[in-house]
């Protein structure tokens, strides 16, 4: 496929799913809203330069967007995609990974500053100052946060490390984990931290407190992302170079199956990146950046049910039920 060629996809309705999907279109510098019943993109707005990861607010009224090509976290209404806040992290921030915590606080990596930020609830009656924590590592890209806000973890691509930040004391501990660790997900009960290292085609289970590596699992080719199912039983890696998903049983730390989304022959035409579970764990949404689509995968059967059209270069995703 030529670099400027795109795979045309028509919306397909479904009676088995509800909710709304939000997609950051990093090449188009836009934010899309997709109705999951009709499969249609119902709204698209200009966002910021090179937007990447997304997170929805606990009350479902807003979505926060990490503006990787700039210095801000921008907040939009989920109903109209109207921008209502722009939180500036300062020079060279390059915000990327983002979590909107149940407390109302936003946590985001600032890759260019080798740091993370805690942005207190952006809609309080009285404004509260931001908190910044240094990772001191190159490419602090993705982030996970403990349910009790005691700690946060980053994957540091350039330094080949995973970093734990104690959010109470500010202390930092980094350990080397594979080649180019990028994907990260904390088990729902906080008992394990899982990381995928795209450069070594592996996933790792770490003790979230000691940062000791408990288990190492071989995955498909170039596991760019890792996401744990909301039910806490499996993790899935998004294997960019072979167009598949590796399913890991968390109890045994063993690969139990693989799911072909596009397959090796189409992998570069699709270029799958971010993965996202539906809240009920029945669907996996896979962003295919090169074809401007999101594949909707049935977890039980492994079947690709639909391909949903997005804007140019859809990458980061967030979902509302």
UniProtKB/TrEMBL annotation:
InterPro entries named in the record: Host-pathogen_enzymatic-act, Quino_amine_DH_bsu, WD40/YVTN_repeat-like_dom_sf, YNCE-like_beta-prop
UniProt keyword annotations, A-Z: Signal
TM spans (from-to): none
Keyword Chaperone: no
Residue span(s) of domain YNCE-like beta-propeller: 3-317
Listed PANTHER family: DIHYDRO-HEME D1 DEHYDROGENASE, PROTEIN NIRF
Name listed for the protein in its UniProt record: YncE family protein
């Amino acid at each position: 496929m030529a670099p400027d060629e795109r795979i045309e996809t028509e919306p397909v309705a479904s009676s088995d799913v509800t909710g709304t999907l939000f997609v950051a279109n990093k090449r188009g510098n836009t934010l899309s809203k997709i109705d999951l019943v009709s499969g249609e993109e119902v709204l698209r707005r200009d966002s910021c330069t090179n937007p990447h990861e997304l997170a929805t607010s606990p009350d479902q009224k807003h979505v926060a967007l990490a503006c990787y090509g700039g210095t801000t976290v921008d907040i939009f209404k989920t109903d109209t995609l109207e921008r209502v806040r722009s939180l500036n992290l300062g020079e060279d921030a390059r915000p990327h990974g983002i979590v909107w915590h149940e407390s109302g606080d936003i946590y985001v990596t600032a890759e260019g500053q080798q740091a993370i930020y805690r942005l207190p609830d952006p809609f309080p009656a009285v404004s509260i100052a931001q908190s910044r924590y240094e990772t001191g590592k190159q490419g602090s890209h993705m982030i996970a946060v403990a349910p009790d806000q005691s700690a946060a973890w980053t994957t540091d691509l350039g330094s080949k490390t995973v970093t734990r930040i104690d959010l109470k004391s500010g202390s930092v501990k980094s350990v080397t984990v594979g080649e180019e660790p990028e994907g990260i997900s904390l088990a729902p009960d906080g008992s394990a931290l899982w990381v995928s290292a795209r450069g070594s085609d592996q996933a790792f289970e770490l003790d979230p407190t000691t940062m000791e590596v408990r288990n190492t699992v071989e995955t498909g080719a170039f596991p760019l992302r890792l996401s744990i199912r909301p039910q806490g039983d499996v993790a899935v890696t998004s294997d960019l170079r072979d167009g598949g998903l590796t399913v890991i049983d968390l109890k045994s730390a063993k690969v139990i199956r693989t799911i072909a989304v596009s397959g090796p022959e189409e992998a570069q035409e699709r270029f799958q990146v971010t993965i996202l579970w539906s809240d009920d764990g029945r669907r996996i949404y896979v962003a295919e950046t090169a074809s401007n689509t999101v594949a909707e995968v049935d977890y039980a059967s492994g079947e690709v049910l639909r391909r949903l059209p997005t804007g140019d270069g859809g990458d980061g995703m967030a979902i509302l039920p």
